[in-house]
Amino acid sequence: MTDIVYVLNGPNLNLLGVREPDIYGHATLDDIAGALEDRARELGLSIDMRQSNHEGHLVDWLHEAQAHDARAVLLNAGAFTHTSVALHDAIKSIKTPVIEVHLSNPHTREAFRHVSFVGRAAKGSIAGFGALSYQLALEAAARF
Question: Which of 6, 88, 102, 134 is labelled catalytic?
């Protein structure tokens, strides 16, 4: 196992900081990456942060994490969380532990957000703590 943690972000997360800040906060994805990089160094880890609006990229990156023997994947799949059997199957097909991450708490939002195909396959889920959700997931990954 390497000391790299993949941090994969799905659709619309490139708009963090401007998209519905009352729900997702004011931190940008770059802000979150900077904070994660700082904490990862303290933990003796490194992160590989990526974002795509395309489901297939996320599937490919999950496979890549396995191929590179990553310690873990932190996955905020965005809306794909609730729709993607492909992501579910990709997570199930790799040995690398995946931690589902959400800025908001999907269970307090619209009913369609209460179902998580990602969560059904992931080792665990952290949600509802804004940008801190990523930090908490990284702390968990450091203990694998």
Answer: 102
